[in-house]
Amino acid sequence: MSYYRQIDINRFRYIATLFPIGISTILDIGARDNQFKGIMEMDDYSVTSLDIDPQETLMIKGTITSLPFKNNTFDITTAFETLEHLSKKELALATTEMSRVSRKYMLVSVPYNEVPLGKGHRQYFNEAKFKRLFSNNIHVDYFGTRPAYQGIRKQLCLIDKRLVYLFNKIFGVKKNIVSNWIIGVFVK
Fold it and tell me: In what order do the strands lie in the sheet with 102-111?
């Protein structure tokens, strides 16, 4: 449980409040160290954890683009901070696979309006992209805030984060506060 910051634990607890009534089986994709599973099992949910690089023996090794489960196996599939790491082609496969193994719902959390920088982030997400990826039958929510660069600082960030540091040293620091995470619950 030590991998996650308190903000992550709070976000997982908040996400748990968004679960529709009647859910009992969950597939948590990209489970890392099973933090979400631990939180959900306290409320008597049955959680199956999957990760491309399992940290625990109780996880199933697999990839979001080819889930090793039969159709309609779980009431809900979840992917937290996973989709932003995928290529465009992988993202299309992932959403198809999540829908295939889910009986009812999909729940996704990704960075909101984040310029895809570092940490392997390859995708940019906003509410419109969510609706295109999944369906119009969606509940979108936001969690937390973070500083964000706008204008020239945003462009400099795309080139090299160090350029923003230099720009701020010369012209002063200016950041806008924006929503941090976008969370969507999708009805299949």
Answer: 60-61, 46-51, 25-29, 74-80, 102-111, 176-187, 138-148
